[in-house]
Amino acid sequence: MRKMGYIVGSGLGREGEGRVEPVTAYVYPQGVSLDRCMELRESSNGEELLEVEKRLDRQKRIEVAKSVQAAERLKKKTSVFDIINKKLGAKGHASEDDVDEAKEKPAVNICSNVLQKDTAKNLNMKNYQISENIRQLEREVQRMESTKLRQSNNKAALAIINTRLEAKKSELQKFKEAEKKVTGEQQKRRDTKKYCVF
What is the pTM of this model? Predict the structure, then answer.
């Protein structure tokens, strides 16, 4: 337009009498009548809620607020000192990761009487929970063993790691026994189903 003689800031037309301000764009909801759109515009009381630019600004503000919240959550979750304490096995306050690990392994009732009364769906859920706990504990045991190899010179840290490792191994053994009980109950039900058919 500049090549055709347009001067920035002036109106369009031969005499420059055209409008200078850009036409505001509005976005109306889909499938709504024009009367309803005009009602929406009037009910906004001068605040042009349907203007495209204002809508984009609003979306940008929401995204910025979300990113700030996510950054704060991440900052709270991982602290350098918590990581160091966890690796060295300090006996101070439990880090949030330890609390999360404790939450992630819920107690599963594997009493034989309870297992017999459980539905097939409940047994499947218990089996899934137990297998997830076993996988997690195996990862933790591997991590602790690698830490133990790294801390072979530090006797104090090694003693703490050994006690924690033994506790994790015993917990892992308990979960493996629980898994055997649940799978045994499931197999027993499958067998009885087969016998009932014949």
Answer: 0.43
What's the Cα-to-Cα distance from 40 to each of 28, 55, 139, rounded to whole Å? 9, 15, 57
Q: Could you give the C-alpha distances from 16 to 9, 13, 20, 23, 24, in angstroms and in order?
A: 10, 5, 9, 17, 20
The DSSP output letter for 95 is P
pLDDT tens digit sequence for 101-136: 444 455 555 666 667 777 778 888 888 888 888 899
32 Cβ neighbours under 8 A, 6+ residues apart = 40
Residue 119 or 51, more confident: 119
> Which residues does 84 contact at the CB level (< 8 Å), separation at least 6?
90
Structural domain boundaries in the chain: 34-77, 108-197
What would the two tokens of residue 140 be? 């933790």
Question: How distant, in Å, are the alpha carbons of 38, 101, 150, 151 from that of 88?
Answer: 67, 17, 11, 9
